[in-house]
Give the backbone structure.
Amino acid sequence: MKHWEVVIGIETHVQLSTASKIFSGSSTAFGSAPNLQANAVDIALPGVLPVLNRAAVECAIRFGLAVGGEVAARSVFARKNYFYPDLPKGYQISQYELPVVCGGSLPIQCGENEKLISLTRAHLEEDAGKSLHEGLGPTAQGRSGIDLNRAGTPLLEIVSEPDMRSAAEAVAYARALHALVRWIGICDGNMQEGSFRCDANVSVRPAGEVRLGTRREIKNLNSFRFLQQAIDYEVQWQIATIEDGGSIEQSTVLFDPASGETRAMRSKEDAHDYRYFPDPDLLPLIVDRQWVEQVRAELPELPAARRARLIADCGLSAYDAGVLTASLDLANYYEATLATAGKENAKICANWVMVDLAARLNREDREIGQSPVSATQLGGLIARIADGTISTSMARKVFDELCNSGHTSSADEIIARQGLQQISDDSALTALIDDLLAANPGMVAEFRSGKEKAFNALVGQVMKATRGQANPQRVSELLRRRLG
Amino acid sequence: MSLTLDQVHRIAHLARIEVDETEARRTLGQLNGIFGLIETMQAVDTQGVEPMAHAQDLAQRLRPDCVTENDQLAWRSAFQAIAPEAEAGLYLVPKVIE
């Protein structure tokens, strides 16, 4: 059997976090009743003119800088012409020949390997409205309902080069991009609400072939799982088609999550004849250097830099640093625990944030921003583990208490109130051990006859007698000395 | 360069303009006349001239990101009063589904 190479490029529609639309003063809030956020511009009444939203442009500049692309000093809006009922003007305002951002790249982590995915461009455009085909009233039989609330919502369309070679890489790219746009605050990343949607261009070619195969574009994938499933299916379908002697026809396909299959949309021969031309309603967009530099100065430290710093300064593994920089909130939370617990405890902090806290958040279906424990509280707790005041098992109890305390108590207060300090006083422990040995001559005899199990049972007895407050390691040491 | 009759029909279809054979032939003549003018202009040396995106040499004005619309219920009623069909706040159109 021949070896096939998979080639994937991704186009992503990122909904920009602005209060108002890209060309009108309508709200962009999600979930309003139909057509209550669609004004004369959005529904394309005659005689209206679009006026560009400054914040949407600024989002594009932020993105351009974050990926090391070139922010164009001059870019041009163009009309993309097609007819569809949820596109009231009969064209979408987009950018074509001169987009606002050119080039740039995004590092992705795929298993152990880091790879740099090149970006072609990013351009500003408006979203279309929504067509509803179901759930309409009885008088609307044979009709589709049109809701134009989404029409005119600002989008940044980010186009990658065909640099990905597997579904896993495509997902890693989508995840990295998703994390980045949230990190720099240009998109809320809500995929259910359609704030981040991917189209995947997929083709296959025999290994070693230089020319690209014919691609099919899978439209509108709004979850990472669907992206993976859709590409897996598409790749296997394309290979099977070619191996059966068929050929791939360039087309647009939809992914059906129920069947796990992709299927071609009713083919429209003019689907791609958009007859772009510069929009005479809009003048060229000029972005001066001063504006770009101002945006650059306001950019947060980017995920890749943050990751590198956590590895170099805190000695974290690449994996831990990757997990902890999944979002800006998480990275900030982690570093705030370090500020209280001390950088020397970076690894313990990482474990607590990634394991105990993550499990709790997951159970309660919360984001890090709604953590029941503040970073200062958690840092305070970790400091007490590190200096030996409490054992790890005690710390779990204190952690639960902190979670339930509603940000009011500190770890120190809970430890003091409940008397949970580890008993580090050897004389107290030794006295306890002596009492126990006297009370359990049978176990002592068993131990002396060579049964290691009996020793563990004795340690258990001491831990029980101290309600877990003894350091088990110290107990073992003292016990061995006593029995030795 | 000159157009064919098929191309005229295709352009008309893309723009959703209905043209009959007579109109198409007339349009073909007019469009080819325009292409003739363009061909004449192609002779001008435009080396080093930046392509023009707009007839006015101005920059796009930007608007602050503020929601300026209110009383959208009243506006929607007004807009939908002139729509051919509307129901429950939605504009209705002949069924479109892929």
Observations:
- DSSP finds three helices and three strands in chain B.
